[in-house]
Write a structure and sequence with these properties.
The protein is an alpha+beta fold. The protein folds into two domains: 163 residues; 269 residues, Neuraminidase. Helix content is 32%, strand content 32%. It is built from four helices and 24 strands. The strands form six sheets. The chain has a four-stranded antiparallel beta sheet, with no helix packed on it. Strand 2 and strand 3 form a beta hairpin. The radius of gyration is 40 Å and the shape is elongated.
């Protein structure tokens, strides 16, 4: 476009001047837009370079993990092979020793028989009478017995190798080495809040309910521990209704589903775990196990209980009879893992991964600690970001959620990066959140001092 001087502008009509100004303004807008587009291209180029490294590293890491798995599998089968080979060598050694003894005894008996045979032949040729015939007969009987025993002992191990049936099944059913798991750190969004309005006042209910623990027992029924009113409540989610109330000895803290019809409830003040059965729409006490200290949070997997304790602060894996299988109180450096571990959440079973983690909230340290089932600390999240964390839950996708009771919020822990993302706060209807459970694409939360349970859809 040609440059126009001020003198030329004076010679232009008013309409022409306005058109010129509009064209200049449009060109400035276009110029600014082009600059922004160039900047976007620059950023995209930088991101592409970063993604190039991510792609290369992802392949390298995946291949390293595959090779590591192959080495672990080879080591595993080498150990199994060595165990069988050791048995083979032991039997082989025993057989050679047996054959060596038999050969020696056979040679010895043969010599004795030859001597007796020569002795008898000599007497026959010379026509002499054997004066010690009884002695000869006895020696022959003894030799006959020895030969018979030698025949019986002349046996070795006859064997072949047959593969373990479970290994055959593994080769038959395992169709792939593993899966590539995308490690996304997508922040979830919670929408469409609804409320389970538990307006029914239960008999013997003294105080405002404090639903400290939550667990789903079926698609439509949730179980809540009412700490203040010393009872367990079975709630129909579609009907917004309490369908069964079971009084217990003392204040219950947390609840976990053990089997399809069995629950486990912690009774911290009595140092007990109470087992319940769910029959249709009723709850019944069936048994209990005694513990040595105050229990709090509880989760269950493969009919094993994961239980947190306050004094001393620890987590234990316990079988259904109360036998402690593992106990985690100190880290590898000898430092205490927890101060007040209130709740536990377990990762869902993942057939494509051998990893299995537990998440333990600690209200005194404002942290959530991730442990392996062997007690190794994987990560510690929170610190100044979390405020009084209580209930913690993991959805089927492995996303970890924790209630910040002191800060009146719901947070998502970004497991890979360690960041804490806020999903809900007080202005969205969350007040002193305490118990939490994920079910399908929803998260259910109970709050201190509120009798109702609120839920949000997760997308």
């Amino acid at each position: 476009m040609e440059n126009i001087s001020d003198a030329d502008k004076h010679s232009l009509s008013k309409s022409e001047t306005e058109t010129l100004d509009e064209d200049k303004a449009e060109l400035l807008r276009i110029s600014k837009k082009v600059s922004l587009m160039l900047y976007d291209l620059k950023v995209n180029k930088e991101i592409a370079e970063q993604n190039r490294h991510i792609v290369q590293n992802a392949r390298t890491n995946a291949r390293d993990n595959i090779r590591k798995l192959r080495m672990e599998v080879n080591d595993f089968f080498n150990k199994l092979e060595n165990a069988v080979d050791k048995k083979v060598e032991n039997m082989r050694s025993d057989d050679f020793q047996t054959l060596s003894i038999l050969s020696s005894e056979n040679e010895d008996l043969n010599k004795k028989l030859v001597i007796i045979s020569n002795y008898i032949d000599k007497h026959i040729k010379e026509g002499k009478v054997v004066t010690d015939i009884d002695k000869v007969r006895k020696e022959i009987r003894d030799l006959e017995t020895s030969i018979r025993k030698l025949s019986i002992d002349n046996n070795v191990h006859e064997y072949t190798f047959e593969a373990e049936e479970r290994i055959k099944d593994m080769m038959k059913h395992v169709k792939r080495l593993g899966d590539l798991i995308l490690e996304t750190e997508k922040k979830r969004t919670v929408i469409r809040m609804s409320e389970i309005s538990l307006n029914d006042k239960c008999e013997n209910e003294r105080l405002i309910p404090f639903l400290s623990g939550l667990a789903f027992v079926s698609e439509d029924h949730i179980v809540a521990t009412d700490y203040e009113n010393r009872c367990i409540k079975l709630i129909s989610v579609p009907d917004d209704k309490i369908v069964s109330v079971l009084p217990v000895l003392t204040e219950p803290w947390d609840v976990a589903k053990v089997k399809s019809d069995q629950l486990a409830v912690t009774l911290p003040l009595k140092k007990k775990i109470q087992f319940l059965t769910v029959k249709s729409t009723s709850l019944e006490q069936v048994s209990e196990i005694n513990l040595k200290s105050e229990c709090r949070g509880i989760e269950s997997k493969r009919e094993m209980l994961f239980v947190s304790f306050i004094e001393p602060a620890k987590v234990e894996i316990i079988d259904l009879k109360g036998h402690v299988k593992k106990s985690f109180e100190f880290d590898e450096m000898g430092y205490e893992l927890f101060s007040w571990p209130g709740y536990i959440a377990l990762c869902p079973e993942n057939p494509g991964s051998s990893r299995s983690y537990m998440y333990v909230s600690d209200k005194d340290r404002n942290t959530v600690t991730c442990l392996s089932e062997e007690g190794k600390v994987i990560a510690v999240y929170g610190g100044d970001v979390l405020k009084g964390p209580r209930g913690v839950s993991v959805d089927n996708g492995g996303h970890v959620f924790v209630c910040g009771r002191a800060s009146n919020d719901l947070c998502q822990i970004m497991v890979k990066s360690g960041k804490i993302e806020y999903l809900l706060e007080r202005s969205q209807g969350l007040k002193q959140p305490h118990g939490i459970v994920c079910h399908g694409n929803r998260v259910f939360i109970s709050s201190c001092g509120e009798k109702n349970i609120k839920s949000w859809e997760i997308v």
